Amino acid sequence: MGLLLLAALLACGCAAGLVLFRANTIPLARPSDAPAGGRLSVVIPARNEARNLPHLLGSLQAQTRRPFEIIVVDDGSEDDTRAVAERFGVTVVGGTPPPPGWTGKNWAVWNGYKRSSGELIAFLDADVRLAPDALASLLAERAKAGGVVSVVPFHLTERFYERLALIANILGLFAFTSKFERANPKKGLYGSCILTARDDYERAQGHEAIKSELLDDLNLGAKFMEAGIPVTNFIGRGMVSFRMYPGGIRSEIEGFSKGAVLSTGKLNGRTIALVAAWLVGLIAAEAAPFLLGTSWAWPFVAGYVFYTAQIYYFVRYTGRFGRWLPAIHMLSTAFFLVVMAYSAYQVVFLGRVAWKGRRIEVGGRKNR
């Protein structure tokens, strides 16, 4: 009886993932789609992004729907970010140190917005890469859905340490595709790729309204919701991708940990409960290799098999994580737990997080 109950609990944990996940990809724009009116400005905040910018700026040049203007805000870079951007002939805005009460990225984005003139604005992180039809398709979907849209990019990885982010990325998809977030008044945006009408952005008071917030994208989405502007999130597979942390595992840990703990407070309670059920079931199933040969083995082995099959399905929409890592996902789970522990340590004990050479106080009181 105990084994059957355990098997049922593992099955419920696995099923929680199917309840959370929606394959909400961006439909390819058709010739019959009504053209999205207005000029499109693209704003790109860039801090030490000389390696990433050629991919993004090259993909912007290849768009079937070309932007009216592209603005790169050089946010105090110490590499060739400015020179790389200038080679592509885009507008480059020299960043200034953020004033008291502003975080660095929010200040950079705000300055890019002030230099822009389009009726539509796309905010893109420098590590984003776009398929040729990406902007046209996003504009068409924004016209249909109304309000502001964002995209969780498909995660491209090349090195083993990058692939350790598998579980963290899947959990991120749960948070942004959960049906329980549709009416959440704190519904967040994914900051790497946001598309909005200028009028809506100004109605929500834009990044000035969240100038001190570490979780700029999640809090910006809440401001749009507060202003009565719909928020819609998509999965980027086939349209929008990025390579997040090519600079090493330290930057990867810093990047994921800066908001790992704080972001959970923005989610609907039912989303949190289901994510917790899925994660607890996953960790339990990953005990299977240690129980082989015991009378308790079969429910754990069955759970491991079902979770692994489910992860292979989710990976199709999440990113490129190699052929074998989804099968030995306990390595990625361990990485995620380390990230959560480090995030909690920074938030609870230090009161600040580290990112791109800056120390950002939780709550945005200081930015150095």
Describe the structure.
The chain is α/β, with parallel strands linked by helices. It contains 14 helices and twelve strands. The strands form three sheets. It has a seven-stranded mixed beta sheet with strand order 3-2-1-4-8-6-9, with helices on both faces. The chain has a three-stranded mixed beta sheet with strand order 5-10-7. The chain has a two-stranded antiparallel ribbon with strand order 11-12.
Task: Give the tags.
368 residues; alpha/beta; seven-stranded mixed beta sheet; three-stranded mixed beta sheet; 14 helices; globular; disordered C terminus
Q: How helical, in percent, are the residues?
A: 40-55%
Largest sheet: 7 strands, mixed
Q: Mean of the pLDDT scores? A: 89
**Helix- and strand-based class?**
alpha/beta
Uncertain regions spanning at least 5 consecutive residues? 364-368
Radius of gyration: 21 Å
Instruction: Please identify the oligomeric state.
Output: single chain
Globular, elongated, flat, extended or rod-shaped: what is the shape? globular
Question: What is the distance, rounded to the nearest whole angstrom, between the alpha carbons of the first and last residues?
Answer: 58 Å
Beta content comes to 5-15%
Order of helices and strands: HEHEHEHEEHEEHHEHHEEHHHHHEE
Number of strands: 12
Mind sketching the topology for me?
Layout: H1 2-20, E1 40-46, H2 53-61, E2 69-74, H3 81-87, E3 91-94, H4 104-115, E4 120-124, E5 128-130, H5 134-145, E6 148-152, E7 154-155, H6 160-163, H7 166-177, E8 193-197, H8 198-203, H9 216-226, E9 231-235, E10 240-242, H10 249-257, H11 269-285, H12 288-291, H13 297-318, H14 330-350, E11 352-355, E12 358-361
Parallel strand pairs: 1-2, 1-4, 2-3, 6-9, 7-10
Antiparallel strand pairs: 4-8, 5-10, 6-8, 11-12
